[in-house]
Amino acid sequence: MKHISATLRDIIQCLPTLVLAAVGGWLFSLVNAPLPWFFGSLFAIAGINLLGWKIRGPHGSRQAGQIFIGTTIGLYFTPVVAAIVASHLPWMILVAVISIGLGGLSAVVLVKIARVDSATAFFGNVPGGMAEMLALGDRFGAKPAALTLSQLTRVTIVILSIPPALAFFGETGKDIFVPLAAEVDAPWLLLLLACCILSSLTLSRLRVPNCWMLGAAAFASLLTVFEITLSAMPRELLNVAQVFIGIALGQRFDRPSMITAPRVILASAMTTVVMMAVALVLAGLIAGQTDIPVTAMIAATAPGGLAEMSLTAAVLNLGVPLVTAYHIIRIIMITVFTLPAYKLACRMFRTDGNQPT
Fold it and tell me: What is the CATH number of domain 2-348?
């Protein structure tokens, strides 16, 4: 009971943030901007924080957004789609390996230009989940502000360029990439969300990376693979997810972190452009070897975050399950192999690195 009352107080305290983010999203939707509720809320919250008024969203809002996105993703995993995703596993591994390698090389650039330590440079450049990279960086004494800014710069450049570009060309994924459930059934929707939340909480207990999105996606996809239909996800919940993710990213911007920002932003921007160029080449290569549109493969290989690129795929109908699977495999491999890769990079470039704390 105390937990519920504390949650309600937190939501009430953060109500101005939610209203501001929603207004930002609504304004962007009026001009038909790509991912309007995401970009509108992101710019609104980041702008206020950079002006010196520190605001934040309710605790758990990002997790709620990830659960909504994960549930939406899971509803796409029909048996036919699951077979297509499985056939792409070798390509997924290749993209993940290249991402880790590019992260290591980009770290060298960040050290030279931004003059940060090796841990901050490495974990700030590897395109894994932001939360996971922050946690690993903390173990090796990385500077949180610079690491966060580096990750944010990469993700921001990706989401400011790729979704608008894909929306401009107006292409979508194949017709088979559609949710199994077509209609919203309120009682069954509540049951679906409750089960997805429980699944996410279970993975959280097991300390699985990106547990909130993966847990929801796992349960929903399990139902879909066996062609069990409960309810479709309302478009409004996907808009709410955009707002929550936008708030979570926007609240990371603040004025103190901007003091040392120019060099970090410059180095991260340079390496991000290279990563995006490599991603475009990979997307074209994989699209040419498979039967998947290049636009979907661009979203799949882009060095953005799982939530942001999955959201892009969902809003633009760009092969949601395939895009998500590529980013999930990349995150799993990065989570498993980042520490060995970091130690190898330190030896190769003759840096001691910081010891884990």
Answer: 1.20.1530
